[in-house]
Specification:
27% of the residues lie in helices and 13% in strands. It folds into three domains: 77 residues, Ubiquitin-like (UB roll) (Roll), CATH 3.10.20; 85 residues, no CATH class; 45 residues, Alpha-Beta Plaits (2-Layer Sandwich), CATH 3.30.70.20. By secondary structure, it is α+β, with helices and mostly antiparallel strands. α2 packs antiparallel against α3. The chain binds FE2/S2 (inorganic) cluster.
């Protein structure tokens, strides 16, 4: 059965069961995603794909990768509320994993130039890509979520090497936090050696927490490329 809705003022019909992200893709409206991946089941962890649905007081933000299309629904993919929320989410992700190339690029593409939150250098954003990859594509189910709240993490039960793990590396390949840019001489604090070494214009403070060299454009990083 087909479902008809309005996305950014355009009428579109999709098969029942499709998501708002599918609708936006169909019409060519870009929506950034992080935990979502083609070939893996939707998980809705990062909220980066947020869009606004409804009108007036009933308008609300939902994650488009998990929200199913509904008859007559009105969706905005780039309202000021959506853009504010996306930027905030990216700033928080950046604070969690400041060296992640994927997150840096997303932040840069959204015009984030200032790091407002303290960098934590965690090595996981709990997006669950690795868990789904292991279970759904590698058919192994060697890793999973453990614990709750602050203590939530991903790994094998009791941290014991899993019998079903074939060391395929799929979990690392798909991890957005694993792909690092540069680490400078103080990997636990610095983001990128380019700025610190070349004193590019984007280094205005002495505190490494304020380094913004990973933000595009960065003169020092450009020079380091070749
Ligand atoms: S991409 Fe939709 S919640 Fe992460």
């Amino acid at each position: 059965m087909m479902v008809t809705l309005h996305l950014n003022g355009l009428k579109v019909s999709l098969e029942e069961g499709a998501t708002l992200l599918d609708a936006a893709k169909f019409l060519g409206f870009p929506i950034p995603t992080l935990c979502h991946m083609e070939g893996l089941s939707p998980y809705g962890a990062c909220r980066l794909c947020v869009v606004e649905i409804g009108e007036g007081e009933n308008a609300k933000l939902v994650s488009s990768c998990t929200y199913p299309v509904q008859e007559g629904l009105k969706i905005r993919t780039a309202s000021s509320r959506v853009l504010r929320a996306r930027r905030m989410i990216l700033e928080l992700l950046l604070a969690s994993c400041p060296q992640s190339r994927t997150i840096q690029d997303l932040a840069s593409a959204h015009g984030i130039r200032i790091q407002r939150f303290r960098q934590e250098h965690e090595d996981c954003i709990l997006c669950g890509r690795c868990v789904r990859m292991c279970e759904e594509q590698m058919m192994a189910k060697a890793i999973g979520f453990r614990g709750r709240g602050q203590a939530r993490s991903i790994g094998t039960p009791f941290d014991i090497k899993s019998d079903v793990c074939r060391l395929c590396g799929g979990c690392m390949y798909i991890c957005p936090a694993c792909q690092l840019r540069c680490t400078y001489s103080e990997p636990e604090r610095a983001v990128c050696g380019g700025c610190a070494n070349l004193m590019s214009p984007c280094v205005e403070m002495e505190n490494f927490d304020d380094l913004m060299c990973y933000m595009d454009p960065c003169v020092a990083c450009e020079i380091h490329k070749d």
